[in-house]
Design goal:
- This protein has five helices and nine strands, in the order ββαβαβαβαβαβββ.
- The protein is of the alpha/beta class.
- A seven-stranded mixed β-sheet has the order 5-4-3-6-7-9-8. A two-stranded antiparallel ribbon has the order 1-2.
- Strand 3, helix 2 and strand 4 form a beta-alpha-beta unit.
- The termini are far apart.
- The relative contact order is 0.15.
- The C terminus is likely disordered.
- This is 16S rRNA (Guanine(966)-N(2))-methyltransferase RsmD.
- It holds the Pfam family Cons_hypoth95.
């Protein structure tokens, strides 16, 4: 059973798409959000949840005070579940979009994202994850103090961080590894080339 860990919807359960998703465990989400709240990255944030599945990460952020949350998944059943979960929880400022992550991040966005989650299927190729990270930076879609969180299998290598994202902490939870990265350029300005 997947549930919202804390905030205004804390303890409420979430529907999960019948196939094709691997929801982040409550334990991992609790630890992840503890770190993000320490960084003051959630309250009032504009949040992007890519490969949203049930929407658990973005909805957790909304429950904890995020101002606006966009849930993106390429699978229509997942988007339908995201919309149903947001409606059931009564969380405002949440929208769900059916699109591929690598295409969605190339769209212009205003205001830029303060917090971005990438929780792709573990079998998604590392090059595909790198493509999404590159596009986020190239589109100048990140706020100056944005935090990007990438969740991968423990056996996966570290993501390739483009210029404009600086690796922060790595946290391991069983078979799951969570990488935190910080934006190193202001939205609307091009990232500086790597030295």
């Amino acid at each position: 059973m997947t549930r919202i860990v804390s905030g205004s919807a804390g303890g409420r359960t979430l529907k999960v798409p019948p196939t094709g998703t691997r929801p982040t465990s409550d334990r991992v989400r609790e630890a992840m959000f503890s770190r993000l709240e320490h960084l003051r990255a959630v309250d009032g944030a504009h949040v992007l949840d890519l490969y949203a599945g049930s929407g658990a990460l973005g909805l957790e952020a909304a429950s904890r005070g995020a101002l606006a949350v966009t849930l993106v998944d390429s699978a229509r059943p997942a988007v339908d579940v995201c919309r149903a979960n947001a409606a059931t929880l009564g969380l405002r400022g949440v929208v769900a979009v059916a699109d591929r992550a690598e295409r969605f991040v190339r769209r212009p966005v205003d205001p830029p994202w303060d917090l971005v989650f990438l929780d792709p299927p573990y079998e998604l190729a590392d090059d595909d994850v790198a493509e999404v990270l590159d596009a986020l930076v190239a589109a100048a879609a990140l706020a100056p103090s944005a935090v990007v969180v990438v969740e991968r299998a423990a056996r996966s290598p570290e993501p390739r961080w483009p210029a404009g994202l600086e690796r922060g902490e790595r946290r391991a939870y069983g078979d799951t590894v969570v990488w935190f990265a910080d934006a190193t350029h202001a939205a609307g300005s091009p990232p500086q080339p790597a030295p």
